[in-house]
TrEMBL record:
Protein name: Uncharacterized protein
Domain of life: Eukaryota
Organism of derivation: Moniliophthora roreri (strain MCA 2997)
Transmembrane segments: 20-40, 61-82, 117-137, 149-174, 194-218
Keyword list, A-Z: Membrane, Transmembrane, Transmembrane helix
Origin organism lineage: Eukaryota, Fungi, Dikarya, Basidiomycota, Agaricomycotina
Length: 353
């Protein structure tokens, strides 16, 4: 037992590290997770009791991905709690007994700590992969299933998440025995990759959000240019939902990077992981709530485009609207029948994000 605190252990035995950081971090994480539970339960209830439409495949896909996000987020909360509680116990025991060698062994080579760290980082990457898959799929649908939009996003997402997996492996090896110079070098490389991974993920998710919101804005302008009329307030609401909720995840990533390099009393890494599940769930719930409110006021629960086509000189035309469910919103197809003329159609696609 040593009565003198080694210089390299002083930062770990401060009041901020022993009490403030774990306390504030866990309290904030549990509050956000409680909010996530409420969101998830609301989404499941609204999905199971709502009209699924004729696109059962998309419905099942988004429901499955949402459940996967919630399960991964729950595992992350459990893993992060184990890490913080165990760290606090070791630090408190060290201060109480003055056995600083135990803390040095724990910080440099502890098998349980390494396993917990590995699963935490791995779950974080899996959350990002699931979120990217969901958002790219929606962006692909809203862009009329254009491969030239989806393929670049998929390639960039695969590259970034591959960097995340490499970072996970290198950081875990470095953490397993940080007293080794070679392992510590691997840890530093993994730490640099983590910064690049988080920044790249934030950029990709921001681009996805802008592409989706921009597509909705463009379709609204095209509809008006062709004489179709849509509710400006409702389209504006959907546009705002995507920008606000979709920006939650990349914003939390950037904030976590900033906080990790400042003496903050809490760690935002846990909130970043939870926001990966909260952001897409929140978008879907807000879209559903918006549709329900619109339905109560105007008896229309979907975004519909109604064409006001001028009658032809030779034959009268009759617009006939057909509704096809895709995701959470609708595809409205306008068929114009003109006597014996060949049927013409103008399709406006809108898919919930």
């Amino acid at each position: 037992m040593s009565s003198t605190i080694p210089e390299e252990l002083m930062p770990f035995l401060s009041v901020r590290r022993v009490i403030l950081v774990p306390l504030f971090t866990l309290v904030v994480m549990y509050l956000v997770y409680g909010f996530y539970i409420l969101l998830f339960g609301t989404y499941i209830y609204m999905t199971c009791n709502g009209n699924r439409g004729d696109k059962q495949a998309n419905h099942n896909l988004y429901l499955t991905l949402t459940v996967i996000l919630f399960v991964l987020s729950t595992l992350f909360v459990v893993d992060y709690t184990i890490q913080e509680v165990r760290n606090s116990v070791v630090l408190f025991t060290t201060i109480q007994n003055g056995d600083y060698q135990m803390l040095m062994d724990y910080s440099t080579r502890d098998v349980q700590k390494t396993v917990v760290f590995f699963f935490r980082v791995l779950i974080d990457v899996l959350l990002n992969i699931t979120t990217n898959y969901m958002l790219i799929h929606r962006c692909y649908l809203i862009w009329s299933s254009r491969k030239r939009v989806a393929v670049p996003l998929i390639v960039v997402s695969v590259i970034i998440n591959a960097i995340g997996l490499v970072m996970c492996v290198l950081s875990t090896i470095g953490t397993s025995d940080s007293s080794s110079d070679s392992n510590w070098a691997l840890y530093l490389v993994g730490n640099n990759l983590a910064a690049a991974y988080n920044l790249g993920s934030a950029i990709v998710n921001s681009v996805l959000t802008l592409l989706t919101a921009g597509r909705i804005w463009w379709m609204h302008r095209q509809a008006r240019a062709h004489g179709a009329h849509a509710s400006d307030a409702f389209v504006s609401t959907i546009f705002r939902i995507i920008l606000e909720s979709g920006a939650l995840y990349p914003t939390s990533m950037v904030a976590a990077l900033v906080v990790s390099n400042t003496p903050s009393p809490f760690d935002l890494a846990s909130l970043t992981a939870l926001s990966a599940g909260i952001a897409p769930t929140l978008v879907m719930i807000r879209a559903k709530l918006g549709k329900n409110a619109e339905g109560l006021q105007t008896q229309v629960s979907d975004i519909c485009f109604t064409s006001q086509l001028a009658p032809s000189r030779e034959t009268a035309t009759r617009p006939h609207a057909q509704m096809h469910s895709t995701g959470n919103l609708r595809i409205v197809t306008l068929n114009v029948e003109a006597g014996s003329e060949e049927r013409l159609s103008m399709r406006k696609e809108m898919t919930a994000v």
